[in-house]
Amino acid sequence: MAERTLGVVLFPGFELLDVFGPLEAFGGLPGLFRVVLVAEQSGPVASAQRVRAVADHGLADCPRLDLLLVPGGIGTREEVENRTLLDWLARRAAEAEIVTSVCTGAALLARAGVLDGRRATTNKAFFQWVADHGPHVAWIKAARWVDDGKFVTSSGVSAGIDMALHVIARTCGREVSENVARAMEYEWHTDSDWDPFAKVWGLV
């Protein structure tokens, strides 16, 4: 099985677990996935929790990506107006095999125009804010994640881990994902419709 390159987008105010939850899963499979962190410019990027992560590449020198992951976080409030990033996302989404988002990262994909006509979900606490950025997207109110073929979007924060394990199962087989979840001592929610938080936030 050929190694796939996963690019994870960083921006000021990204949510830590949106990035490092999925990376705990993907990063445990060397030879199957190569992970690169990408930001507008290479170097350290401060998260919403003020912990910094180091981008390996800027947008201009990012290598070809097979998979793309867009996290959420408070920083999405500004990035939805960042045309440089949105245009880059649109180009890279067209080239990638699978494009994923966690939490409010779906707002960036929606603003980039790549989710139009697709089914998607997002963080339930900020559901309407995200949905307003994608009026032509079929937003699913109750879902842990939504798999619409090329695009796989997840609900808030921890849901990104379940989504990542689902993508690993899709690309590498269910047994591989189960082994990763076991190694993480993580109870994987394999039902994409499991979403108690939709009720908590009054969406259903």
Structure overview:
The chain contains eight helices and eleven strands. Helix content is 35%, strand content 21%. The model has no long low-confidence stretch (mean pLDDT 98). The protein is an alpha/beta fold and 204 residues long. Helix 1 packs parallel to helix 6 and helix 6 runs antiparallel to helix 7. The chain has a seven-stranded mixed beta sheet, with helices on both faces. A two-stranded antiparallel ribbon has the order 3-4. A hairpin with a 5-residue loop joins strand 3 and strand 4.
Q: In short, what is this structure?
A:
With 204 residues, the protein is of the alpha/beta class. Helices cover 35% and strands 21% of the residues.
- Overall mean confidence score, pLDDT: 98
The rounded distance between the terminal residues' Cα atoms is 41 Å
Radius of gyration: 15 Å
The general outline is: globular
Strand order within the widest beta sheet = 5-2-1-6-7-11-10
Helix content: 25-40%
Spans where pLDDT lies below 50 across 5 or more residues: none
In total, the number of strands is: 11
Largest sheet: 7 strands, mixed
The portion of residues forming beta strands comes to: 15-25%
Specify the structural class.
alpha/beta
> What's the helix count?
8
Which H/E pattern describes the elements?
EHEEEEEHHEHEHEEEHHH
